[in-house]
Amino acid sequence: MSNHVPEDIVEYAVATDAQRTFKDLKIRKPGQPVCAIGGVNDLQGKEGTFQFFNIRIAVVQFAEGKTLGYDPLDLLLPCEIHEDGEAYFEIRQCPSCGQIFPLTSEEFRADVERTECPECQP
Prior knowledge:
Number of strands: 9
Distance between the termini: 34 Å
């Protein structure tokens, strides 16, 4: 699934070592791509677009036209945003604790891929 993403978002909307979930971002702007890992079952694992914050809930719109509120911890960032604005996600489940986490672009391209979440990796 792809959403058009404004070019200025590319600098901070991608998973990094320090920022992997939407809650981690200091600056949140409409149009940022996110992947829902919680909430409504039929939307888990789907890409949506952040719209705005309603108190502590991130409002996300999906391609199907559904707009829902999420805890920012349930929204993962993409590992890359391609030049055409398409977000690309690489999501893994930690074998130690079961937590779902996104890989960064560097981790995805590394010779040995990270298998554990940042909290469990030594």
